[in-house]
Amino acid sequence: MTRPPRARAATYGTRGSRVAAGIAIAIPCAFIAVFFAYPVASILGRGLAPNGALDLDPLRRVFTDPTQRGVVWFTVWQAALSTLLTLVLALPGAYVLARLRFPGRSLVRALVTIPFVMPTVLVASAFLALGVPRSLGAILLAHVFFNYAVVVRVVGELWRHLDPQEEDAARMLGASRLRVFREITLPALRPGIVAAATITFLFCFTSFGVILFLGGPTRSTIETEIYRQTTRFLDLPLAAALSIVQLAAVIALLWLVGRFQRGASVPRRLRAAREVEHRPRSIADRVLLVTNLTVMATLLALPLGELVVRSLTPPSGPGFGYYRALGTVRAGSTLFVAPLDAVGNSLRFAVVATVIAVTVGGLAAWAGVRTRSRWLEGALALPLGISAVTLGFGFLIALDEPPLDLRGSQWLVPLAQALVAMPFVVLLTAPVLRAIDPRMRDAATMLGASPARVRRAVDLPIAARALFVAAAFAFAISLGEFGATTFVARPDTPTIPIVVYRLLGQPGDVSFGAAMAASCILMLLVALAVLAGDRVRAGRLGEF
Amino acid sequence: MRRIPVLLAALAALAALAALAAVPAAAGAQASPKPQTITLVTHDSFAVSKDVLGAFTKRTGITVKILQVGDAGQVVNQAILTKDNPLGDVLFGVDNTFLSRAVDEGIFEQYRSPALDGVPAALQLDPKNRVTPIDYGDVCINYDKQWFADRKLKLPRTLADLTKPTYKGALVVEDPSTSSPGLAFLLATVQEFGPDGWQQYWKQLVDNDVQVVDGWEQAYYEAFSGGGQGGKRPLVVSYASSPAAAVVFADPPISTSPIGTMTQSCFRQVEFAGILKGTEHRAAARQLVDFMLSEQFQGDVPLQMFVYPVVEGTTLPKVFTQNADAAESPYEMSPTRIGKQRDAWIREWTGIVLR
């Protein structure tokens, strides 16, 4: 096959557009510098140079102490294995949800996103209740459970719009299905797959709750070790050294991915999803559909269903007892938060976080595509690779002086959430922006459209659509975010995940039941957010 | 494509507006000098009745802003990290297992509350009064009454009993490197079997199939058969107040607790409050500490945080007197000794039990 021509260094060059690009680059850079680089550098500096003089001995300890070395090694291989397993299980799922049309598909698509934002502690308890013992296997399964949605969303977004013409042509010329997949579909999907694998790897690499709750105390990752060293032993030097190792590994990975991705993404003809998808016609399609729905049902729906069922069956009889308890247990205490208030807090923080993430991430994606460089994308993905403890402590000692005294401020929570959601915005929008075929613009120009019209008619709808997908996902992430939220000093505006953890901190049936009820409310909110996102973009903006 | 930045800039403006509307500026609260607002830095389990706190504000004009930062370990360590520019005026939630580090780092200023006279000397662990005891709780082994009744088994009484074959596979404990009750239980065993004997005891516990989990939630809800969530083990490291809490949060309501306490297995944790050095509201901070020792606050402590008030003669709620058996001569250890040995003991424990 011949590859489509590479994008010409876009046709923009006016001063105005250069200024726009400059601003587009400056905002994300400033954001990352202030809310990520500066706090992290501060806390690492405190650890490695407590008295002003740099002491690299702790770094040596990480590599010479057999325990620490074991931790680093375990972190790497469990993340690699989890990523591989997630790809193997979720790629077919991504195909089914992207290409096959079947009743209830948009619901299924929304449902598979829920696990991604569930509180780890409850998922762990559901896994254990289903008879999965604490083990390496439990860790891997849980990582697939949490990251399935990443693959389905990131790869599926590309897959939904990939022009099947090339595949059809190859088939007609006698290529086998497998060969078509290997030589045409896979290369076209490569940017998406690599992006999804990267995020999944980063999540598993910095996994915290899953390791603690399902691995048992004998297994620790760099992330859990940083937590232990920082919050228990206050061994900041060792924690800083571990953070640096973690960060270095993440930078190396992102650099490799960047190199690998360069050249990989070629403008493709993108097509409207409804032109690409089809009913399951062949036997192969039907088998794929049934198998994947079964996988999703067992792996994703079963643990979630377990929680829903248990939340609805208190010992006093089936019903909404636990949900009612949410509004009464602890009433009158400063710990009490009315369920509706918690929902309100969650939604409010999530809206602010989403707007920040979409703005900053969208600008970065746009600037990255325009200037054809990837370092900005990489820089925005860094927060995924740093321990929430490190970041939280960094916020604490760095953002403590006017004009930026954010400690105790309500901004901290949405900012922390935005840092987590931003990489997704970039990874979901950049590939789509990059894939806009210049021929589409050329065609529009040839048909007599002015440059402004081209942008309006070609670029904007595609970009806006991608941003919508990203926004819905960012919103869902912010709703369920717990790690970063809990490590920043926050005033009394608990989100749903915080309520869940508070309830779990006290004994008694009702406490546990109310925690499950709160998680089910979270599930519902996430499902609604994702469904609404899908609706809005399908209805108002149309597809390209 | 040039529109996109415009679109995003508009979004940014919208964001700023939305945020301003949604998030009241924290600075505004601090700016007005009267009535005063002070900040109480504490852990996630801190709780007080809104009425009780409201009464304090009404009487003194002082509004208390509560800043919660994770668990007790995090609170202390964050306070140490930020000692040059403290997060608040008063810190509540440092316990005797973290006390020596906190006072050695010099994060507190001295204050002796007049109300301290009502607190037994045994609980006043800092002779220099940099911290003030507010409550105490006993970390004890809880048992599932039903489980033992069904099997007609004798209850274990002492720590040594737990190594008997009868109780093989019965106990679940928390990892002392991640959990506060886990650490307290380790200290209890050190106290009981001595600095050279506890290692042997833990080896026997391991041989007797003790289960170690990361935190209290996992131990109580997932492993403990009395947690009501399908756990299998009838013995768990929890609190002397857990039987009372199990009644308060029961569904349907019950009057007798399904769990009991091994009263000879307890380690006493005392929780303190201290005024953070650098406070600009010293007088108000002192008033808050005094208030925490007042009858009103002390009486509120049991049902809010499920710990015991330190002031002698405070009336306990009925559910406590009926269900929460107090510890018989609990294990205690000086904060200085804990501070010196803690990390080494945890490392040694990890080597014996986990590796």
Describe what you observe in this structure.
The complex is a heterodimer of chains A (544) and B (355). Chain A is mainly alpha-helical. Chain A folds into 2 domains: 18-48 and 322-544, MetI-like (MetI-like fold, Orthogonal Bundle), CATH 1.10.3720; 88-305, MetI-like fold (Orthogonal Bundle). Chain A has 23 helices and 2 strands. A two-stranded antiparallel sheet of chain A has the order 1-2. In chain A, helix 6 (136-159) packs across helix 8 (177-205), helix 10 (222-233) packs antiparallel against helix 11 and helix 16 packs antiparallel against helix 18 (412-434). The longest helix of chain A is centred in the first third of the chain and has 34 residues, at 15-48. Chain B is an alpha/beta fold and 355 residues long. In chain B, strands 1, 2, 3, 4, 5, 6, 7, 8, 9 and 10 form a 10-stranded mixed β-sheet that branches. The longest helix of chain B has 20 residues, at 3-22. Chain B starts with a helix and ends with a helix. Classes of the chains: A mainly alpha (544), B alpha/beta (355).
* H/E element sequence of chain B: HHEHEHEHEEHEHHEHEHEHHEHH
Number of DSSP strands of chain B?
A: 10
CATH class of the largest domain in chain A: Mainly Alpha
Number of folding domains of chain A? 2
- Model regions low in confidence, pLDDT < 50 over at least 5 residues of chain A: 1-13, 539-544
Question: Could you give the distance between the termini of chain B?
Answer: 58 Å
Helical percentage of chain A: over 70%
Task: Give a quick summary of the entry.
By secondary structure, chain A is an all-alpha fold. Chain A has helices at 15-48, 57-64, 66-99, 105-113, 120-129, 136-159, 165-172, 177-205, 209-215, 222-233, 236-261, 273-276, 283-312, 321-326, 339-370, 375-381, 388-398, 412-434, 438-446, 451-480, 483-487, 496-504, 509-541; strands spanning 400-401, 404-405.
